[in-house]
């Protein structure tokens, strides 16, 4: 066998043996679409305090308020619509407050005080099994 034939033979063998691994790796990665529900945390954690902070959700930080027994959950993006700072939830006054320029939002995301003009984005949320899931989009 010539050197070139040997290299081609080894190269084809490597490709043939790697292909199934590459296909398996690609098929395990799920594309997340805007109509998908994604898990953001365990429902037990939500039930402990009535709040679940999902810092790493696909749509940025989201706060879910409610419990698995409350019937309806509220999921609100924590990204301020003024300039993108992360707002914080104030339990005592029941509003979101932005630390950057002072915008305030109600629990449903509506603006209570500017400079923000648009409300916080909200998402549908529900309990599914032992998880809290949020619908993107
Ligand atoms: S970034 Fe929130 S008020 Fe300006």
UniProtKB/TrEMBL annotation:
<keyword id="KW-0793">Thylakoid</keyword>
<keyword id="KW-0411">Iron-sulfur</keyword>
<dbReference type="Pfam" id="PF00355">
    <property type="entry name" value="Rieske"/>
</dbReference>
<protein>
    <submittedName>
        <fullName>Ubiquinol-cytochrome c reductase iron-sulfur subunit</fullName>
    </submittedName>
</protein>
<feature type="domain" description="Rieske">
    <location>
        <begin position="37"/>
        <end position="134"/>
    </location>
</feature>
<keyword id="KW-0479">Metal-binding</keyword>
<dbReference type="InterPro" id="IPR014349">
    <property type="entry name" value="Rieske_Fe-S_prot"/>
</dbReference>
<dbReference type="InterPro" id="IPR036922">
    <property type="entry name" value="Rieske_2Fe-2S_sf"/>
</dbReference>
<keyword id="KW-1015">Disulfide bond</keyword>
<dbReference type="InterPro" id="IPR017941">
    <property type="entry name" value="Rieske_2Fe-2S"/>
</dbReference>
<keyword id="KW-0408">Iron</keyword>
<keyword id="KW-0001">2Fe-2S</keyword>
<dbReference type="InterPro" id="IPR005805">
    <property type="entry name" value="Rieske_Fe-S_prot_C"/>
</dbReference>
């Amino acid at each position: 066998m010539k050197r070139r034939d040997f290299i081609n033979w080894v190269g084809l063998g490597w490709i043939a043996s790697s292909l199934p691994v590459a296909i398996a790796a690609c098929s395990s990665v799920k594309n997340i679409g805007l109509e998908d529900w994604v898990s953001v945390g365990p429902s037990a954690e939500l039930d402990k305090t009535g709040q679940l902070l999902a810092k790493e959700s696909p749509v940025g930080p989201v706060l879910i308020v409610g419990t698995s027994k409350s019937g309806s959950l509220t999921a609100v993006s924590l990204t301020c619509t003024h300039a993108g700072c992360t707002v914080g939830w104030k339990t005592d006054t029941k509003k979101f407050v932005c630390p950057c320029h002072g915008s305030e939002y109600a629990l449903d995301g509506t603006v209570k005080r500017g400079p923000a003009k648009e409300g916080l984005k909200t998402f549908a949320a529900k309990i599914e099994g032992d998880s809290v899931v949020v619908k993107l989009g």
